[in-house]
TrEMBL record:
Pfam families: OEP (PF02321). InterPro entries: MdtP/NodT-like, OMP_efflux. Its main location: membrane. Keywords: Coiled coil, Lipoprotein, Membrane, Palmitate, Signal, Transmembrane, Transmembrane beta strand. SUPFAM superfamilies: Outer membrane efflux proteins (OEP). Residues 240-274 form a coiled coil. It comes from Paraburkholderia strydomiana. Belongs to the outer membrane factor (OMF) (TC 1.B.17) family. It comes from the Bacteria. This is MdtP family multidrug efflux transporter outer membrane subunit. Residues 1-30 form the signal peptide.
Amino acid sequence: MNTRTGLRGWRWRRCFLCVAWLSSVLPGCALIHHNGTPYAEIAPEQINLADDIHLARDGWPSARWWTRYHDVQLDALIDQALSDAPTMVIARTRVAQARSDVELVRTGSSLQMVALASLDREHVSANGFLGPFAMNVPALGLTGPWYTEGIVGVGASLDVDIWGKQRAQIAASVGVSNARLAETSAVELEISTDVAQLYYGIQTTYQLIDLLNELHEVAVFTVQAHEARAARGLEARTRLEEARAQQLGIERQIVSAQAQIRQLRESLRALIGAGPDGLPVINPVALPRSQAALPATLSYELLARRPDLQAMRWYVEASFHRIDAARAAFYPSFDIKAFFGFNALHLADLFTHASQQINLIPGLTLPIFDGGRLNANLSGAREGSNLLIEQYNQAVLNAVRDVAQTGSRLQALDAEAQLQKQRIEFVAFARDSVEAHYQRGLASRVAALEARQPVIAEQVALLTLNGQMLGEEIALTKALGGGYRADPPVELTPR
């Protein structure tokens, strides 16, 4: 047998020994014991609304839903809030942070290169591992005991992602980043609806003060009339005191309404993040007519319309990738390190051809015994994912409940408002009758003015209903996700 055949045989035996060694070690690596079972996502049929919720108008709200009210003051307030509100700044910062996290995780699977340079002035120990180099025998190349060692070069490393651990970690980070984007839309929706609620609360109170002022004018004239009659002895002072008490009660309501406007303005200022002079003057405007829109059918599409639900779906999807990364940690990891440069014990020899150094170091890391750390990590990732799934399922049910309850309240308020309008017509008929008698000299002016009070009181009740309807309409817009749409919806694939 020649030398070449012997060397070839030795190489085959060495490969066989390596395979046999890996075959004996691989079964002894850490085993998966706590993978667990993923929880089930909520079924789409559980998202349907009841069939008895109907409004006069159908359709989805548009993206800038508040512009349908054609109120330039409201438009400016919401635009200012979406730009300057502290919660919006926080949400945008969280998105930027998530994007940075994605880039940080992505760099872990990229080629890493560094430039190296070091200088070591060393006195070699005569009793150490390098003892012979402590001698000073130039003929033998020994110039100890002092040496000035220099190293300069380029190093590189690469983690080979065979089992997809790095890919899973990147996907999880991307999922969190997408969730943060959806959360930003949810914050925008929250802020815009809160601003609209506060704004129309102020406008409703403005109109309430106008009606109370009308009542106050009637009360003042009534008090003056009773004072004149009591002074002439034409009636007892009881009627006068009752009229004064009624006037004071109206004045108290006016003061309370004015205080409520100040409170609403301060709430609006804090929400927008405006300074002492940063909130513009809000002029009174008429309340818009109700434009509530409830879709004729509402099931799985609700998931695409709600930014908070889409954010939770992205968090769930990210948790699945974390499970993949935790499972991949059980398998061997491979990396490659390399170095090219110069290394010499004497600086004078550093950049010579003989001082060139090249290192190529493939590496294998195989977990064998880790005290249960990997299984605990996998179990934690699985349980965290299951928790997110259950939170998502509950959020879906809550979203359907919000739409159903808000739609039902809006429907009831609409019916109440129609009945209240009819009631005002009947009360106004009695007022008109008394005024007609007054014009013919058959009734006093006091009687004509007092006949207006029931009508104004019923108008206050109708104003309250209209304000409640507008508030519920805005709440319905929020429950329907405003103008948000994720296209296509995130598809959850548990593993």
